[in-house]
TrEMBL record:
Belongs to the isocitrate and isopropylmalate dehydrogenases family. PANTHER family: D-MALATE DEHYDROGENASE [DECARBOXYLATING]. Residues 5-348 form the Isopropylmalate dehydrogenase-like domain. Transmembrane segments: none annotated. This is D-malate dehydrogenase (decarboxylating). GO terms for molecular function: tartrate dehydrogenase activity. Keywords: Manganese, Metal-binding, NAD, Oxidoreductase. It catalyses: (R)-malate + NAD(+) = pyruvate + CO2 + NADH. Gene3D superfamilies: Isopropylmalate Dehydrogenase.
């Protein structure tokens, strides 16, 4: 039996509440499957840890995480800790030091999910955004000159290496070829005359090795418009760190909201652990009330199953999420229901059990 070792950083706000349900679902899937199991190890890192220790994780934290195959992250951020500290000293630190250069965010309108767009069918919103996750605009390069003086100047430098740009674009091409889907690059070469011109050049160069893949290229402002007006244009999307961050939130908005938004941070070579997370944030205004929507965390759990080669079970988890939304009997308040976070998780577990029973 395969035993998958997962580090759990439940984090801040609603993080522990939604992650508890994800762990519950993963354990139930393992029980039903019978040929693999999960071993979860919890780490109390995040903003509360920072307020007590002056750091988001201990000095040897990264060394501790190296022992695991995956990291399951709840949420990061809480009042009293500046966002640039909570983000850079935990989430981005893990992404960069573990070379999780591929960020995978599905933008798929599930059955029963609310959609703000008029007259849009489910098949029109079904894409995967591949976001560069290790450099670009979030590289942290730059300077702050003459701070506090009238001539104060700040420089924020985007970093686009040949290695970093080519490998993320190649990953997207490989996914498009494997799935038989179109590939769209999103950039802004008309305004960013170095980084995005280079991005477009590499996209074209790598594309010569994939003549079987149908490609498109849009400026990010035009792409944002098409996300809303014609989302069916997009199947596989590849873009930079900053643009990917922005358009995936837009994608979440048209595919049911942040309560259904999940993301995977992958080290494809598996030299380091990969990390999986709901991307909705810590939502401190509803923390500890038991009303947070756990469905994004459960979608992240399905990505964990996919990562370990159990795509059939990952698909079943998504099917059950859809069933919960279609039934409308067990939903949290943000989706018009009155159920608690735990009750939604219990319903998913019950439906998974029933699904397994019906197939025996």
């Amino acid at each position: 039996m395969n035993v998958y070792k997962i580090a759990v950083i439940a984090g801040d706000g609603i993080g522990p509440e939604v992650i508890n349900e994800g762990v519950k679902v993963l354990n139930k899937v393992a029980e039903l499957a019978g040929d693999f199991s999960f071993e979860f190890t919890y780490f109390p890192w995040g903003c509360e840890y920072y307020l007590e220790h002056g750091k988001m994780l201990p000095d040897d934290g990264m060394e501790q995480l190296k022992k695991f195959e995956a990291v399951y992250l709840g949420a990061v951020g809480y009042p009293g800790v500046p966002d640039h500290i909570s983000l850079r000293e935990l989430l981005l630190k893990i992404r960069k030091q573990f070379d999780q250069y591929v960020n995978v965010r599905p933008v798929k309108l599930l059955q029963g999910a609310p959609c703000p767009l008029k007259d849009v069918t489910r098949d029109q919103i079904d894409m995967v955004v591949i976001r560069e996750n290790s450099e670009g605009e979030y590289a942290g390069a730059g300077d702050w000159l003459f701070k506090g003086k009238p001539e104060e100047v700040v420089l924020q430098t985007g970093v686009f290496s040949r290695k970093g740009t080519e490998r993320i674009i190649r990953y997207a091409y490989e996914l498009a070829r494997k799935t038989g889907r179109t590939l769209t690059s999103i950039s802004k070469a008309n305004a960013l005359n170095y980084s995005m011109v280079f991005w477009d050049q590499v996209f074209e160069e790598v594309g010569q090795e994939y003549p079987d893949v149908e490609t498109h290229s849009y400026l990010v402002d035009a792409a944002s418009m098409f996300f809303v007006k014609q989302p069916e244009r997009f199947q596989i999307v590849v873009t930079s760190n900053l643009f990917g961050d922005i358009i995936t939130d837009l994608g979440a908005a048209i595919a049911g909201g942040m309560g259904l938004a999940a993301g995977a941070n992958l080290n494809p070579e598996r030299v380091y652990p990969s990390m999986f997370e709901p991307i909705h944030g810590s939502a401190p205004d509803i923390a500890h009330q038991g009303i947070a929507n756990p469905l994004a965390a459960l979608w992240s759990a399905s990505q964990i199953l996919d990562f370990f080669g159990h795509e059939n079970w990952g698909a079943k988890v998504l099917d059950v999420i859809e069933q919960v939304m279609v039934d409308k009997k067990t939903l949290t308040p943000d989706m018009g229901g009155v159920s608690s976070t735990e009750e939604v998780g219990n319903e998913v577990v019950a439906l998974l059990s029933a699904l397994k029973t019906s197939q025996v």
